DNA sequence: ATCCCGAGGG
DNA sequence: CCCTCTGGAT
C-alpha cells in the first residue's frame, strides 16, 4: 500500500477514534514515575479504573523510594478495584525497588532498560517512552495491530518485527504512537478476529481484505 | 457474556 | 505456543 492511501486511512481512523479525549489523562501525569506505575497498572484494565486509585496510591507512595519500602501486601488493598491486583502490587513494588537499586531512583529512558522492570513489557515500555519522554521508539505489535495491519494491507507479513518495520516505513514517526493506538482500538471495536463489522468500518473501501471479499476471494488469514 | 492500550511463566 | 492473573463496566 502506498503512503497516501495509508495516510488517508490514518486520518479516517483518527476521526473514528478520537485520541485527544482518551489521552487527556496521560497528559495529566505528573512525572515519569507516575507515568510508569500507572501504565503498569493499566494493563488489561480501563483508564477509569486506574484513575480511581491513583490519588490514594501516590499520596501514600509519592516517590520510588517510598514505594520501594512498601510491601506488596499493603499496596494490594489500595489497588484492589483494578483487577490483577496481586500481580500488579508485586510488580510496581519490585519495579520501584529496581528503580532505586539499578537506576538511581529515576525512570530509565531506553526500551531495553525499561523492559528489565517487573511488569514492563514491550507495550508498556513503548507507552512510557512516548508519554513520559516524548520518545517514539517504535510500534508495539500485538495481535490487534497484527491482524488489522495485515487485513488493511499495511503489511504482507505476519512476523511482528517485519510488521513493525513496514508500519514505521509507511507512517511518519510523529504518528507512530497514534497509529499503534488506533489499530488497537479498531481491532477491538470493528476489525475483530471473528465477524468483523465491515458496515461500521471507515476504511472498508481502502482495505485489501474487504476488496478480496467483494471479489469473492476468501481472504487467507493465518 | 464479553471486554479492558499485557506480562510472565511453563 | 499455551495458560494464568482479576475486578469492574457495559
From TrEMBL:
<keyword id="KW-0408">Iron</keyword>
<keyword id="KW-0326">Glycosidase</keyword>
<keyword id="KW-0479">Metal-binding</keyword>
<dbReference type="GO" id="GO:0046872">
    <property type="term" value="F:metal ion binding"/>
</dbReference>
<dbReference type="Pfam" id="PF00633">
    <property type="entry name" value="HHH"/>
</dbReference>
<dbReference type="InterPro" id="IPR003265">
    <property type="entry name" value="HhH-GPD_domain"/>
</dbReference>
<dbReference type="GO" id="GO:0006281">
    <property type="term" value="P:DNA repair"/>
</dbReference>
<dbReference type="GO" id="GO:0140078">
    <property type="term" value="F:class I DNA-(apurinic or apyrimidinic site) endonuclease activity"/>
</dbReference>
<keyword id="KW-0411">Iron-sulfur</keyword>
<feature type="domain" description="HhH-GPD">
    <location>
        <begin position="41"/>
        <end position="189"/>
    </location>
</feature>
<dbReference type="GO" id="GO:0003677">
    <property type="term" value="F:DNA binding"/>
</dbReference>
<protein>
    <recommendedName>
        <fullName>Endonuclease III</fullName>
        <ecNumber>4.2.99.18</ecNumber>
    </recommendedName>
</protein>
<dbReference type="InterPro" id="IPR005759">
    <property type="entry name" value="Nth"/>
</dbReference>
<dbReference type="Pfam" id="PF00730">
    <property type="entry name" value="HhH-GPD"/>
</dbReference>
<keyword id="KW-0378">Hydrolase</keyword>
<dbReference type="InterPro" id="IPR023170">
    <property type="entry name" value="HhH_base_excis_C"/>
</dbReference>
<keyword id="KW-0238">DNA-binding</keyword>
<dbReference type="Pfam" id="PF10576">
    <property type="entry name" value="EndIII_4Fe-2S"/>
</dbReference>
<comment type="similarity">
    <text>Belongs to the Nth/MutY family.</text>
</comment>
<keyword id="KW-0456">Lyase</keyword>
<keyword id="KW-0004">4Fe-4S</keyword>
<dbReference type="InterPro" id="IPR003651">
    <property type="entry name" value="Endonuclease3_FeS-loop_motif"/>
</dbReference>
<keyword id="KW-0255">Endonuclease</keyword>
<keyword id="KW-0227">DNA damage</keyword>
<comment type="function">
    <text>DNA repair enzyme that has both DNA N-glycosylase activity and AP-lyase activity. The DNA N-glycosylase activity releases various damaged pyrimidines from DNA by cleaving the N-glycosidic bond, leaving an AP (apurinic/apyrimidinic) site. The AP-lyase activity cleaves the phosphodiester bond 3' to the AP site by a beta-elimination, leaving a 3'-terminal unsaturated sugar and a product with a terminal 5'-phosphate.</text>
</comment>
<dbReference type="InterPro" id="IPR004036">
    <property type="entry name" value="Endonuclease-III-like_CS2"/>
</dbReference>
<keyword id="KW-0540">Nuclease</keyword>
<dbReference type="InterPro" id="IPR000445">
    <property type="entry name" value="HhH_motif"/>
</dbReference>
<dbReference type="GO" id="GO:0051539">
    <property type="term" value="F:4 iron, 4 sulfur cluster binding"/>
</dbReference>
<dbReference type="InterPro" id="IPR011257">
    <property type="entry name" value="DNA_glycosylase"/>
</dbReference>
<dbReference type="GO" id="GO:0141016">
    <property type="term" value="F:G/T mismatch-specific thymine-DNA glycosylase activity"/>
</dbReference>
<keyword id="KW-0234">DNA repair</keyword>
Amino acid at each position: 500500500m502506498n503512503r497516501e492511501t495509508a495516510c488517508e486511512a490514518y486520518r479516517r481512523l483518527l476521526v473514528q477514534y478520537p485520541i485527544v479525549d482518551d489521552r487527556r489523562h496521560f497528559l495529566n501525569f505528573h512525572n515519569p514515575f507516575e507515568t510508569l506505575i500507572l501504565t503498569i497498572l493499566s494493563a488489561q484494565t480501563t483508564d477509569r479504573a486506574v484513575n480511581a486509585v491513583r490519588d490514594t496510591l501516590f499520596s501514600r507512595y509519592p516517590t520510588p523510594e517510598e514505594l520501594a519500602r512498601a510491601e506488596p501486601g499493603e499496596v494490594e488493598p489500595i489497588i484492589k478495584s483494578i483487577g490483577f491486583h496481586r500481580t500488579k502490587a508485586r510488580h510496581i513494588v519490585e519495579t520501584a525497588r529496581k528503580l532505586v537499586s539499578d537506576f538511581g531512583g529515576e525512570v530509565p529512558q531506553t526500551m531495553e532498560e525499561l523492559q528489565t522492570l517487573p511488569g514492563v513489557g514491550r507495550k508498556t515500555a513503548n507507552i512510557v517512552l512516548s508519554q513520559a519522554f516524548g520518545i517514539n521508539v517504535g510500534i508495539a505489535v500485538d495481535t490487534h495491530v497484527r491482524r488489522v495491519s495485515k487485513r488493511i494491507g499495511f503489511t504482507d507479513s505476519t512476523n511482528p518485527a517485519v510488521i513493525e518495520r513496514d508500519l514505521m516505513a509507511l507512517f511518519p514517526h510523529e504518528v507512530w504512537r497514534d497509529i499503534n493506538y488506533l489499530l488497537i482500538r479498531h481491532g477491538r471495536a470493528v476489525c475483530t478476529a471473528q465477524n468483523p463489522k465491515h458496515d461500521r468500518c471507515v476504511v472498508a473501501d481502502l482495505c485489501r481484505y474487504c476488496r478480496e471479499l467483494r471479489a469473492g476471494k476468501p481472504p487467507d488469514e493465518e
